[in-house]
Specification:
797 residues; alpha/beta; DNA Primase, Chain A; Dna Topoisomerase Vi A Subunit, Chain: A, domain 2; Rossmann fold; nine-stranded mixed beta sheet; five-stranded antiparallel beta sheet; 29 helices; 25 strands; 15% strand; disordered N terminus
Length: 797
């Protein structure tokens, strides 16, 4: 079987590829490559180019063809053609839209050609039908545009100019068209595309209310392809059908996958959102750019993908000045409350007595409306006031309902300063103290977190049951574990939220620091390693990396440090995660350390009574530490992942006084969402970032081991270079994220393997916790797996 002929799913769709092209290539570049600037005498006027139309029709003033360099769009006021760079190439080179986009790629970015060919070859039947339909709709649009300014379109043009009050000179810049009868449209299409009779006969042209509508607006997706038409009655009140007046209709099967007008948006991260389609169609022509419409329906969640694709970060809502407009605005503010896209609101009351932006602009002018838009307030503040307006806060019942609704809304906000603003609004309007309100807010958070937890547990259990029923118990277990980690994080974030603003943080930090006495240690005490205690001011919060080649004593130093922490600090707990050795091996190392016996000896019944008593006492110490909640040892067979370690730390009863040890950080599995298909280097970067996050989240010491990369032949010679943090295995990201890096190397490398108690040099390769940078020396007692500080070691400070 020849696998080379198999189709491969493209990484990008055709629409995405076209969008990428439009971001890379300007309309000026395309005009120049086509030779149109010189041939048709296009002259620069402000942000536009103007001249004769490439279609070749006569032009008395030689300025009918206009190109907006900012928007990347063109339009001819005489023949009504218009579009983006792809439409321009399609018109000049007589190509369909996708061949035209491929032409642009060939001219400006040949590396994209393979992706274009793969996307074209891998179109599904549904995608191919959509593209063919869009091609035919474009022909309908062009003919309707032409007829709007001819004899047939006079009845529609009169409505737009005389009834709606549109400027006749600006109207051609809009997408309004005359809508011929269904028979006229199909006849015209068959004349242009005689090879497509089946597609033309199947084309959706009719709506729900008959064939009497003579005006229309094309509805385009984010890439500019027409998915259908919105049809408008040319009678102001609409057509009476079955006793009801209908002003709007649409072609059957119209897909509104993106906001109306989104295709026009370029080089901006901010959009103005209005309600009416006519507003979004006409206002750009009078100088109000970057405007889209939602129509009568509420803002839908499926619009978000298009906004993200366009890189939108802010939405300014200016919906109609009526009840429906307020409801739609409220729904949008709530929808985006936990999103990266921020929402601002132009209070509809500020447009009074006008109903909508269209009427406001016609009465007050575009400049005044632009000034009004600049007064938009943050959506969370607007919604808080709306909640107060909806309730009778003079009554106890209304007051309680308003407080509850505002606090529940505040819990959905991801930006701390917006949460604080909502709480301050409640406090100001209702006269509640900040302390009392904070307590009520915490209760609301806990209640809603419990409700979410209940719902998520039910969903997770249902998913697991289905997997088990399908014979996939292991996948069910992994799914439950992953979901449990997510639920724990969400629940504990609500139970113990962080500082909401900088004021609170500064106040808490000043109070904490003011309790310290100069010269006293900041972190936990170390007794066996008193010299480390001195140069670091104790074991502080931070990420510590101990790096070395295999069998140099990393784990021995980790265990020795942990025992020192437990013996020297009665209120401190230690969690040891062993990704290399079993729990039994770690316990043996600890017993050897506590008894001063060899590791092999603690594994057997002692030959003498005294040794047996010493060993029993060591077991009692370990058991006591565990029973007091001060010691936990976990091994890799416990299905540990970075996320699970984080959640165990989160739920630790003594988390405020916890030291975490991770022996073999490079072996901690990543969750399925993190780097499972990446390189080892990519995965290690992810691990380094996640372990650093543990320190940031919980303000605790995290001590982890890492290995050096293998040295080359030249490096392994007598004159080999000194190890640095850049030698840490696979990636220097561990070293980059660390607050302290200790690099372990044998002092006498040539004789190291034959020595029972070799001296290990510990180079402090990085230290962000204190000023010490230098070298310490430790004796590695192999038989007992113990590291001891050597008194006569050289310490540089």
């Amino acid at each position: 079987m020849n696998t080379n002929n198999l189709k491969k799913a493209p990484s990008q769709s055709l629409g995405e590829l076209i969008a990428e092209l439009k971001n890379k290539v300007t309309i000026e570049q395309v005009l120049d490559r086509l030779g149109l600037i010189t041939k048709f005498g296009l002259q620069e006027t402000g942000s536009r180019l103007q001249g004769d139309c490439p279609t070749g029709h006569p032009s008395e003033g030689h300025q009918c063809f206009s190109v907006s360099m900012d928007e990347g769009l063109y339009y001819c006021f005489h023949c009504g053609i218009g579009g983006d760079i792809v439409d321009l190439v399609a018109m000049v080179e007589n190509l369909d839209r996708f061949r035209a986009s491929r032409w642009i790629a060939e001219q400006f970015d040949p590396d994209m050609l393979q992706n274009f060919d793969a996307a074209l070859a891998n179109q599904s039947d549904a995608q191919r039908e959509y593209n063919e339909r869009a091609q035919l709709y474009k022909l309908v649009f062009e003919e309707g545009k032409r007829q709007l300014y001819g004899p047939a379109g006079q009845i529609a043009l009169d409505y737009l100019i005389k009834v709606r009050g549109y400027d006749a000179a600006k109207l051609p810049e809009t997408d309004w068209i005359y809508w011929p009868t269904e028979d006229e449209i199909r006849t015209h299409l068959l004349t242009l595309k005689p090879q497509m009779p089946d597609q033309i006969n199947a084309l959706d042209l009719m709506g729900a209310f008959g064939d009497g509508f003579r005006l229309a607006l094309p509805y385009r997706d984010r890439h500019g392809m027409i998915s259908g038409f919105l049809k408008r009655a040319h009678e102001p009140l609409g057509f009476e059908i079955n006793g009801n007046f209908h002003r709007w209709d649409s072609t059957e099967g119209l897909k509104k996958s993106d906001l109306f007008g989104l295709h026009r948006i370029r080089k901006t991260d901010e959009l103005l959102v209005v309600e009416g389609y006519p507003d979004a169609a006409y206002l750009p022509a009078v100088g109000i750019p970057n405007i889209v419409a939602i129509g009568q329906a509420a803002f839908s969640e499926h619009y978000i993908d298009g906004l993200k694709a366009k890189g939108i970060k802010r939405l300014i809502f200016a919906l109609d000045n009526d009840g429906a407009g307020k409801q739609s605005t409220e729904a949008a503010v709530r929808l985006f409350s936990g999103s990266d896209i921020r929402v601002f609101v132009v209070d509809s009351r500020s447009m009074s007595p006008h109903k909508d932006p269209d009427e406001y602009v016609k009465a007050e002018g575009a400049d005044k409306f632009k000034s009004l838009v600049k007064t938009a307030e943050i959506g969370s503040s607007w919604l808080t006031r709306r909640i107060f307006d909806k309730h009778v806060i003079a009554s106890d019942l209304g007051r309680e309902a308003a407080i509850t609704e505002c606090l529940e809304f505040a819990d959905t906000l991801d930006i701390p300063r917006e949460t604080v603003a909502v709480l301050k609004s409640i406090s100001s309007v209702l006269g509640l103290s900040d302390e009392l309100l904070a307590e009520e807010y915490k209760k609301i958070q806990e209640k809603r977190a419990a409700e979410r937890l209940k719902g998520e547990i039910g969903k997770a259990a249902s998913t697991a049951h289905k997997l088990i029923a399908n014979g996939e118990p292991e996948k069910a277990l992994r799914t439950l574990q992953k979901k449990m980690s997510e639920m724990q994080t969400d629940y504990w974030r609500a139970k113990e939220p962080g500082k909401e603003n900088l004021d609170d943080f500064l106040l808490e930090k000043r109070g904490r620091d003011s309790q310290r006495v100069a010269g006293e240690r900041i972190g936990y005490q170390l007794t066996d390693f008193a010299e480390i205690d001195t140069v670091l001011s104790g074991l502080q919060s931070g990420l510590y990396i101990i790096a070395a080649d295999p069998n140099i004593g990393k784990t021995a130093l980790m265990v020795s440090l942990m025992i020192d922490v437990l013996k020297s600090n009665e209120d401190v707990s230690c969690a040891f995660y062993s990704m290399d050795d079993s729990r039994e091996t770690i316990v043996n190392r600890m017993l050897a350390h506590l008894t001063d016996m060899k590791i092999n000896d603690v594994r057997f019944k002692p030959s003498g009574l005294q040794d047996e008593q010493v060993l029993d006492a060591a077991y009692s110490v370990l058991a006591g530490w565990y029973q007091q909640g001060r010691l936990e040892i976990r091994e890799s067979t416990a299905f540990l992942t970075m996320a699970r370690i984080q959640n165990e730390i989160q739920m630790h009863p003594n988390r405020e006084n916890l030291v975490v040890f991770i022996d073999g950080l490079y072996n901690v599995p990543l969750d399925e969402d993190h780097g499972s298909n990446g390189s080892i280097r990519t995965e290690n970067i992810d691990r380094a970032n996640q372990v650093k996050m543990l320190v940031k989240l919980f303000a605790i010491p995290v001590i982890a081991t890492a290995e050096f990369r293998k040295q080359g032949r030249d490096e392994s010679s007598e004159g080999k270079k000194t190890r640095t943090i850049n030698d840490i295995m696979e990636t220097g990201k561990y070293g980059y994220n660390a607050d302290l890096v200790i690099l372990l190397t044998p002092k006498d490398l040539n004789n190291y393997m034959s020595q029972d108690t070799p001296i290990i040099k510990a180079v402090f390769g990085k230290n962000k916790l204190e000023s010490f940078k230098g070298t310490m020396e430790f004796r590695f007692i192999r038989a007992k797996s113990v590291m001891q500080y050597v008194a006569n070691s050289k310490v540089n400070s």
